[in-house]
Amino acid sequence: MRVVMFGYQTWGHRTLQALLESRHEVVLAVTHPRSDHAYEKIWNDSVADLAEQHGVPVLLRNRPGDEELLGRLKEAEPDLIVANNWRTWLPPEIFDLPTHGTLNIHDSLLPSYAGFSPLIWALINGEREVGVTAHRMDAELDMGDVLVQRAVPVGPRDTATDLFHRTVDLIGPIVADSLELIASGKAVWTPQDRSRSSFFHKRSEEDSRIDWTWTAEELERFVRAQSDPYPNAFTHHRGERLRIVSAAVSEGRYGGTPGRIFIREGDGVVVVAGAGARSGRLPGLVVERVRTQDGSEYAATEYFRTMGGYLTAHP
Description:
Elements: E1 2-7, H1 9-21, E2 25-31, H2 47-53, E3 58-60, H3 67-76, E4 80-84, H4 92-95, E5 102-106, E6 114-115, H5 118-124, E7 129-136, E8 146-153, H6 160-184, E9 199-200, H7 216-224, E10 233-237, E11 240-253, E12 261-265, E13 268-271, E14 283-292, E15 297-299, H8 300-303, E16 311-312
Helix pairs in contact: 1-6
């Protein structure tokens, strides 16, 4: 088949690599220009560079739909478009152009976690598995019929970085399997169960701010979901922003006001957590490592020399 690829960052790079390794012909690659957005500066392997290394024509676009792009797509005469991590909506005149339509690769187990940053949101929410889905693109974002889906388990100490590496390794096999099913006429497209659908927005700085009324279990996942190189979960101490690099749920149960820097436990410092903490029946969050605004990292027991005081959402 003649294939056009739409994609960006490492997800798009892995997709293009799988297409280049297949028996099919990649006739055009469309990708976004580089961005200074915090979440687009990580996992930023270049689709454009890979395409150019293999002699594949490249178009850079923030949004699709201009006459030049549509003209180039028609000239390419694709049998299939494959998309992964394309940041804006593709119009029907693009996704319905090829004979076999457009195959979108999305890093969640659709119909759950459509939209943006699915691994981070899934880890925050305590999902037991994550994965990658290949589905047919239609007018509704990430809602088209599913062709291939693969899952991996989430371990009790896994970070978003761990899950990224585990799921990005699924892309190549999923793309290869999907192309062979489509080319052979054996593709079976399964409609998504809309009753299980969920859609998540792009993450921003506000989404990393710690709310100490969350339970310790929720906050521990929140910290793991924002592991390096992602922007870390943050709070404020004595008016200065403080990033929480690693944390655990306390063994003991601690009462008081959420956000109180309370007591040492093991290798960390317990911060009271949970809206019901006044009952004294909830565990706290054991902060293990922190990073200050200048980038210096400390063990919590080194940073919090004395107990007392509060960590707050705002200065």
